Amino acid sequence: xxxxxxxxxxxxxxxxxxxxxxxxRAAEERLLHRMGHTWSSDVAVRWNGLNGADVARTIHELYKxxxxxxxxxxxxxxxxxxxxxxxxxxxxxxxxxxxxxALHGSYPLAVASGSPMEGIAIALDRLGIRECFSVLCSSExxxxxxPAPDVFLAAAARLGAEPSRCLVFEDSLAGVxxxxxxxxxxxxxxxxEREAVAALSTRVLGTLADAIPLLVPRPTANSQ
Length: 224
Known about the structure:
Number of strands: 8
Strand order of the largest sheet: 5-4-1-6-7-8
CATH class of the largest domain: Alpha Beta
CATH superfamily of the largest domain: HAD superfamily/HAD-like
CATH topology of the largest domain: Rossmann fold
Shape: globular
Largest sheet: 6 strands, parallel
Order of helices and strands: EEHHHHEHEHEHEHEHEH
């Protein structure tokens, strides 16, 4: 099989590499509780794949508490980092560690996530794959979070790769929209809104492990 035309691979993190649903949900629940509301999956789908600032913005605009948006954003970020720091375990999602390690050394790798940078580092360290990534990008550090392409374009620039030659791995609709807006191919393991995610994907995977034979050529009989 010929090598696919990708120069670099860029990974989302939350709910793709790492099961951070408990981390995010606990922080969201605290903010909603302060506003006198409870967490609901039917409502939470509205902010799936967004960064912390935009999650807080969505909640703030939905429930209109008697304090500022900046205060909502600061509270959510503080609680989110507290959850990352105190989490007893952070579980890798199926195929995640194997794929990252299989690609390491063959492609430059980056993470482009909506989590705060400290949370990204904590999660990757817990999985034992931090050293596989040459670039870590948080969408907190760019002008616009997903579904805008900013964080993926920033990751590509730091990797020294043309966006059109980057392959993104994503799970959310906001994420796959961001990858497409950046002009990048996108393999997905959809978490929510599966049909909409699949419609925009270059390829839909059952787990991340399914990408290994597509991206890592097997040695030939004549290879040494």
